[in-house]
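ok so i was messing around last nite and threw this chain in just to see what happens. nothing serious, just curious
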Amino acid sequence: MKRHFLFFVLVVLIAVSIGCDEVDDAQSGDTDTDGDADTDADADTDADADTDADTDTDGDADTDADADSDSDADGDSDGGCYEGDYTISDEATLVAFSSFTCINGNLTITAPGLTEIRLPNLTEVNGELAVRENEAMTLLELSGLRLVGAEGGNEMEVDLWIEYNPLLENLDGLSSLERIVGGIYIIENPMMSNISGLSSLVSVRYLQIHSNASLTNLDGLDNLAGRISILSICDNDALVSIEILSGLTSIDALSISGNTQLASLEGLSNVTEVAELSVNFNDSLLSLDALNNAQVTDYVQLAGNVLIPQCEVFEFLSQIDDYTGEVCIYDNAPDTCDDDTDNCPLM
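result:
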């Protein structure tokens, strides 16, 4: 269990002091921490720029719209599997890729000028799928997509990014997605009001949903069950319910922080095993009772939940059988119990 401690402290707990915006920036597309710096840039990873046989061997050298994005694996774009990384940046690159059914590499969709992204033939992304910074996109239609992530790859990597898409309201276009090998980030999509399009998803290693200002619930995640490595729900200002998570029973690192309208943790009552727990700065949260069945082993941080009396927080901690891990408790509703900040980061 200790193997997750550094990740939890740096990613989840530091968010208490510096805010999830900074955490999201640190983990988002162009840093080395998530792998995107090496995989999502056209200049370095789109192998077609240098290897597309069309530029030297056919009459399309000057006119082929696919000079920068066409697949060389199959010699054409009439279906099949694209070999290598690919970036969709405009209408031409979208059309050039649209007939492929899979990709053995990373697929990045960053097309600020497009309002609709439709790839109905795509069924598998055997690598990372990043849908980010699509400023005009209102429709994401990947209706055939079933799998994201490389089989046998690092299961602790992020395989699906949905981030910084200011007009995207839902994920209905991912309705066939069943499995993500590693993790999914859904970050800073301010108009996204629901994620019910993920209702077919049955397998993911970790899930982080941060800073989606219009998201009111997590409906669509009802088929997730059993164990998940990391669950982080952070800074979703309109979120009022996480009840749909009732299928989860074991979470290595659990963080529920900065969700100002969330009054209840109902949905986590079936969780019996947690290694590291962080419940912080949820201004409307009334109780920790939904976590009474959770046996926490390594770390507990409970801070800034201003409607939960501090002594009640310590009472919750005392009912964890034989707990010997580290504790960080402060700034809950004031009463006769003092803070315990000896093991709080950055304090």
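not much to say yet. The longest strand covers residues 248-257.
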